[in-house]
Design a protein that fits this description.
Radius of gyration: 28 Å
Order of helices and strands: EHEEHHHEEEEE
Strand content: 25-35%
Number of helices: 4
Helix content: 25-40%
Largest sheet: 6 strands, mixed
Number of strands: 8
Length: 298
């Protein structure tokens, strides 16, 4: 097969229209510390890149699966919720369909720009996919640790009892002291063995990229935070029937809601406006990527 199948393209047609855009945004868009106003809602076309990544997690058991991310090349959004709703339509997607001649599609991104988005986006989504597996590992590890502790604790208490009945300097007393030390060494060694047994190793492999071309409704919003304001664009996906959340401009985190910074009205997750661990001053990580502007701590 070679490289065939690693890259494919399809066009999805969707005719569903957006009714009351302002009502939809009021229900779906979560900006906790800013206000917004809808400026315009226009039909448009976009290109999504759908990345399929195979993950393999190995510990005392093995889990593997496929992690899928979707990147909107027009807005930079990673619409996880929309992806879940679109996925059933992909089986019926037309590989030979073409968009209208007058459709304006977003340009290709440089490879480095795509990787700059994927690097911070993959870890939290992969952690969510592996969370049930990790919970199972922790339960089994805790169970084995409890059994190990109970066994060696019984040995330790019995050796202490025997040492207490012997007089100090008696060979029996010295023998029990050596036994107590040996029990401690064995217990620590067994704990290390459990740590290695349940250590989690995860590998990630790119499988394929699907370019998905489809119509959307492009929403132009004016976002205000105190005296600053900024225009942002969101796409309302016609198949998912919901607007895509604005991308977190700090680390493309999937968590909602979004918060706006005071200076540039960057939209970030809560961590993007958290207090500095050094001086305690809250600052925008999208504005100051090198570190805290007050103390310089990263």
């Amino acid at each position: 097969m070679g490289d065939r199948g690693h890259w494919s393209r399809c066009v999805l047609e969707a005719s569903a229209g957006l009714g009351d855009a302002e009502a939809v945004l009021a229900h779906e868009l979560a900006l906790d510390n800013a206000t917004f106003r809808l400026v315009a809602a226009r039909p448009a076309w976009t290109r999504y890149l759908l990345f399929d990544l195979r993950y393999t997690a190995i510990s005392d058991e093995k889990r593997d699966g496929v992690l899928r991310l979707m990147l909107n090349l027009a807005t930079g959004a990673l619409p996880d919720a929309a992806l879940e709703r679109i996925t059933p339509w992909l089986n019926d997607a037309g590989a030979d369909a073409v968009p209208p001649d007058d459709a304006v599609l977003p340009a290709d991104w440089e490879r480095t720009r795509v990787l700059d988005v994927l690097r911070p986006a993959v870890p939290p989504r992969l952690a969510a996919a592996l969370a049930p597996f990790e919970r199972g590992l922790r339960r089994r590890l805790a169970r084995d640790q409890d059994r190990l502790h109970a066994y060696h604790n019984d040995l330790y208490r019995e050796a202490m009892r025997r040492a207490a009945t012997a007089t100090e300097g008696d060979p029996a007393h010295q023998r029990e002291q050596l036994r107590i030390a040996a029990i401690g060494r064995e217990y620590r060694a067994k704990l290390d063995d459990l740590g290695h047994k349940y250590a989690l190793r995860v590998t990630l492999e790119w499988i394929r990229t699907l370019e998905l071309v489809m119509p959307v409704v492009r929403l132009e919003l004016l976002v205000r935070r105190r005296k600053a304001e900024r225009v942002v664009w969101l796409d309302w996906n016609r198949l998912a029937r919901r607007p895509e959340p604005p991308v977190c401009e700090d680390n493309v985190a999937p968590e909602r809601p979004r918060l706006a910074c005071d200076d540039a009205v960057h939209l970030v997750s809560a961590g993007g406006l958290a207090a500095c661990t050094g001086c305690g001053k809250a600052y925008c990580r999208a504005c100051h990527r090198a570190g805290c502007p007050k103390c310089g701590r990263v």
